[in-house]
Design brief:
Layout: H1 3-20, H2 25-42, E1 48-51, H3 57-67, H4 72-76, H5 107-120, E2 127-132, H6 139-150, E3 156-162, E4 165-166, E5 169-170, H7 171-175, H8 180-186, E6 190-195, H9 199-207, E7 214-219, H10 242-257
Parallel strand pairs: 1-2, 2-3, 3-7, 6-7
Antiparallel strand pairs: 4-5
């Protein structure tokens, strides 16, 4: 996966959200590098992926577009009547999306069920689940940690997009979960802390086969890649105004020019 491809995905994500007038752009940008790395560098046909933080559906759609699983016309229909691309992942219509998610705290349980089924049926492949840090306020996730450790689901990898924000403010101010990695380890989960925007390091960690279930705490920035959005709570909700969209695209185009002399 090239830097140019990542930048094109960010540009298309901004365009899609701007044209639809939909918010949640900050949390989509914090998770896009993780999603692109997974789908371009790690996932195999026998693997499964669950997006637990369903409000990052836009980033998942753009990632699937970048792989050829979705087309340009699909992205143009985002959040419109009759679309396959709803604001949160749909229950059916896109083969790569196994579950409708968005009500937080459910994705890890679903992913654990998939991983257990693979073990019982002796099927190959791993299960990956991308979560938000705010959804660790949900008790169901801690119950699932007990479940996956008890069943030794070594074919399961959970990834936390730790951008430090949730719907009501900074996660540390709403219900502090720090240190999340330490809590995972106390459940016996093999845990790695990493820069969630270092795609090379992410790919290396995600490809590893461990003897225990794996937790990856990926430190990210809300609104990553667009300076006026980075680490700003309001971009959990706000849609882009025209002048903001143009400013964001200009910034990304400037970054793109560093990687390519031609169009990016």
């Amino acid at each position: 996966m090239t830097s140019e491809l990542l930048l094109r995905a960010k540009q298309r994500l901004l365009q899609m959200h701007y044209e639809s007038g939909v918010g949640h752009i900050g949390g989509n940008l914090s998770s896009l590098d993780i999603l692109m790395t997974l789908h371009h560098e790690v996932l195999r046909p026998e693997d499964a992926f669950v997006l637990s933080k369903g409000h990052a559906a836009g980033a998942l759609y753009v990632t699937l577009w970048s792989t050829g699983a979705l087309c340009e016309e699909d992205l143009k229909s985002f959040h419109k009547d009759g679309t396959r691309l709803s604001g949160h992942p749909p229950v059916k219509g896109i083969p790569e999306i196994l579950f409708a998610t968005g009500s937080l705290g459910h994705g890890l349980g679903l992913a654990s069920g998939l991983a257990l089924a693979k073990k019982l049926k002796r099927e190959p492949g791993r299960v990956f689940c991308l979560m938000s840090d705010g959804e660790w306020n949900e008790g169901s996730n801690w119950e699932t940690l007990i479940f996956l450790k008890h069943h030794q689901l070594d074919n399961l990898t959970l990834i936390v997009d730790l951008n430090g924000f949730q719907g009501l403010g900074r996660t540390c101010d709403v219900a502090d979960i720090a240190p999340l990695a330490g809590k995972f380890r106390s459940f016996g989960l093999h845990t790695v802390e990493i820069d969630g925007h270092d795609c090379g390091a992410l790919a290396e960690v995600l490809r590893r086969h461990e003897t225990d279930p794996v937790g990856i705490v990926a430190r990210t920035k809300k609104g990553h890649g667009v300076s006026f959005m980075e680490d700003r709570f309001e971009w959990h909700y706000l849609p882009l105004r025209e002048e903001q969209y143009r400013e964001a695209v200009l910034e990304l185009n400037t970054k793109c020019a560093k990687y390519s002399a031609g169009p990016c």
